[in-house]
């Protein structure tokens, strides 16, 4: 078995069960050395070593994986998809040199085109304006975007056909009342 294959195997195993990175023999050795050590600085160093041995980091094995995985996979005829299926994160595969997609996967293209919703124009919003309304009620009634509704109301205010009637007197609940508009 080659060294790159051993590294890939070790990384994949650690992904599934991180406790496999623990070296119990080294932990026992460090605990024994700690029990025999009287120098406070050496004890500190051994405590740190023991902490690292008890909670091994995936970073070191991941870095080794990144260095060796692509060349080994090319030689073995494996793709990034196979590694993804085994739980290797896309970011790690990209670091290793695999060509994998970023973010969400897109669904398969449909043979029937998707129907687009019709665009609500400023004119549609103006024609749908009731005698009194708030921006929200007008948006809900027309399906227009906030920008289109606001633009239509501003145009009608400028033309003198709509007036700002102040805060909605029927407002209840937290927050400030919406502005009520009236056709003139």
Automatic annotation (TrEMBL):
Region Disordered: list its residue ranges.
Answer: 101-130, 160-184
Mark out the compositionally biased spans (Basic residues).
103-118
Q: Which domain of life is it from?
A: Bacteria
Name of protein: Uncharacterized protein
Species name? Euzebya pacifica
Q: What is the lineage of its organism?
A: Bacteria, Bacillati, Actinomycetota, Nitriliruptoria, Euzebyales
């Amino acid at each position: 078995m080659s060294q790159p294959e051993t590294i890939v195997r070790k990384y994949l195993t650690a992904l599934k069960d991180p406790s496999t990175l623990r070296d119990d023999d080294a932990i026992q050795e460090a605990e024994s050395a700690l029990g025999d050590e009287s120098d406070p600085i050496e004890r500190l160093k051994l405590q740190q070593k023991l902490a690292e041995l008890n909670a091994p980091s995936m970073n070191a094995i991941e870095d080794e994986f990144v260095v060796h995985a692509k060349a080994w996979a090319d030689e073995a005829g494996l793709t990034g998809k196979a590694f993804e299926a085994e739980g290797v994160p896309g970011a790690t595969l990209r670091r290793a040199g695999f060509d994998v997609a970023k973010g969400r996967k897109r669904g398969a293209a449909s043979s029937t085109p998707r129907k687009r919703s019709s665009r609500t124009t400023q004119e549609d919003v103006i024609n749908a304006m009731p005698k009194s309304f708030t921006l929200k009620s007008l948006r809900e009634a027309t399906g227009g975007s906030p920008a289109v509704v606001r633009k239509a109301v501003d145009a009608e205010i400028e033309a003198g056909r709509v007036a700002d009637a102040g805060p909605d007197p029927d407002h209840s609940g937290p927050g400030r009342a919406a502005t009520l508009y009236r056709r003139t």
